[in-house]
Amino acid sequence: MEFYSILLPTYNERENLPLVTWLICSELRQRSIPFEVIVIDDNSPDGTLQVAEQLQQIYGKETIVLAPRPGKLGLGSAYVHGLQHARGSFVVIMDADMSHHPKFIPEFIQKQRETDADIVTGTRYVRGGGVYGWDLRRKLTSRVANYIAHVALNPGVSDLTGSFRLYRKQACLAALFAVLAACVERTLSRGYVFQMEMVVRAREMGFSIAEVPITFVDRVYGESKLGNAEVVAYLKGLWSLMWR
Amino acid sequence: MKRGPLFAIVGSCATVTWLSLYLQLFLPLSPQWEQVVSALPCLLLMWFGCVSLASISIGLLSVEDCPKAAASLQSEVACAKEDLRKRGLKI
Ligand SMILES: Nc1nc2c(ncn2[C@@H]2O[C@H](COP(=O)(O)OP(=O)(O)OP(=O)(O)O)[C@@H](O)[C@H]2O)c(=O)[nH]1
Ligand SMILES: [Mg+2]
């Protein structure tokens, strides 16, 4: 039986972390899938780490691994940091904000076994997938962003900016280092851009990618940000991916 | 090949071809063909706009809402909170 490491980067997720952890444990234990949850907290001012320590007491040190960092250093390096602690041959990357439901992890695993893919990525934009809590503007933004990416990059996946994925550990490391190496001189990309870069680089490197439909329920606690800065960062990221 | 260089090459080839036709460098054009050639870039742009608009509209209409997922999440969250409190989690 393969072992799965689930990476949860957190920044101010005090309310969400216990809930997502509980859901992961109940979904995976029910199916006897061996796993660990690695919490990468960037010294969140709301005390997420203290909550994670309590969870470690409840679920055990084998199941909940803490990989804290002294400050907010960005998502890309958070994944590198988390991977150093990962014991599994596969890693699952997901947001801790409850927009990704752990019930899809077994589906990812099953898909990976069926197709022997290096990466299984969740998609909101095929039959069976979907979103909740998005207004028309948000949907339009997302569709336009995906359309531009398809014209500009031909990425071969239907949902580029989603960040709920299962990776073979080697594939994850290779794609991560390609992304990080390409963006040293740019300010390290956040959120959407980063996820897009990961999947595009992975495909360039020849890793195989499969898709599983997922439902995306927008975060319950904490606010979501999609401002002009994000849009500009996204377009800049697209542009650089077209050339390098 | 990356899409950037690909677009650059295809784009510049198309521009050069079009210019040589428009300026009648190699062959003279009849007045009808002159009209067609001068309208070509505009037509192309309109075609691209239409395809984009159609594609985005189809995408937008096919984004599914999933209130069921949200509802079941709500009840699971309630369950999780209850259970975590029992196990002694303090928030
Ligand atoms: N360790 C760490 N985690 C982060 C950092 N930034 C964001 N996160 C976490 O990464 C996950 C995704 O971040 P979000 O803020 O939800 O970003 P998003 O999903 O792109 O955007 P919205 O959900 O629309 O706000 C969440 O679990 C965050 O807590 C960071 O700098 N360090
Ligand atoms: Mg989110």
UniProtKB/TrEMBL annotation, chain A:
Q: What is its main location?
A: endoplasmic reticulum
Domain named Glycosyltransferase 2-like: residues: 5-172
Q: Where does the record place it?
A: Endoplasmic reticulum
Q: Which reaction does it catalyse?
A: a di-trans,poly-cis-dolichyl phosphate + GDP-alpha-D-mannose = a di-trans,poly-cis-dolichyl beta-D-mannosyl phosphate + GDP
Q: What is this protein called?
A: Dolichol-phosphate mannosyltransferase subunit 1
For this protein, the Enzyme Commission number is 2.4.1.83
Which superkingdom?
Eukaryota
Q: Which Pfam families match?
A: Glycos_transf_2
TrEMBL record, chain B:
What's the short name of a Pfam family annotated to this entry?
Answer: DPM3
Q: Which UniProt keywords apply?
A: Endoplasmic reticulum, Membrane, Transmembrane, Transmembrane helix
Q: Does the keyword Membrane apply?
A: yes
Cellular component GO terms, alphabetically? Answer: dolichol-phosphate-mannose synthase complex; endoplasmic reticulum membrane
Q: Which domain of life, per UniProt?
A: Eukaryota
Topology in the lipid bilayer: Multi-pass membrane protein
Biological process according to GO = GPI anchor biosynthetic process
For this protein, the parts annotated as crossing the membrane are 6-27, 39-63
Q: Which residues form a coiled coil?
A: none
- Biological pathway: Protein modification; protein glycosylation
Q: Where in the cell is it found?
A: Endoplasmic reticulum membrane
The entry describes its oligomerization and partners as:
Component of the dolichol-phosphate mannose (DPM) synthase complex.
Function of the protein: Stabilizer subunit of the dolichol-phosphate mannose (DPM) synthase complex; tethers catalytic subunit to the ER.
Family statement: Belongs to the DPM3 family.
Q: What is this protein called?
A: Dolichol-phosphate mannosyltransferase subunit 3
UniProt source species: Prymnesium parvum
Q: What is the lineage of its organism?
A: Eukaryota, Haptista, Haptophyta, Prymnesiophyceae, Prymnesiales
